[in-house]
Amino acid sequence: MPKCRVELLPAAWQDVEKISDFHLEKVGVDSAQRITDKILDGVEGLADFPLMGPPHPDPELAVQGYRKLVLTKTYVAVYRVMEPVVLVYRIVNGATDYPKLLK
To answer: What is the model's pTM?
Structure first.
């Protein structure tokens, strides 16, 4: 599979901003920068390996082609491969009821 272009949709960018703001407020500048870098580096890996995240465990989302990539202990990316583009829909806390955001 040739290299894909990774595109974070507006909701995913807002998620990254909220996560960064949370870390900035609770822990500090270094933490906010580290978590942002880790998230963005993780999703950029989808350019070379778009199928590295398994099909989403929620059956409704899986049938629509959504995949889930664990980025950190806390955060996951929800995306779909629409060759030649990987669309990242959300970056969320995996412990929340985030599938409802996509339905």
So the answer is: 0.92
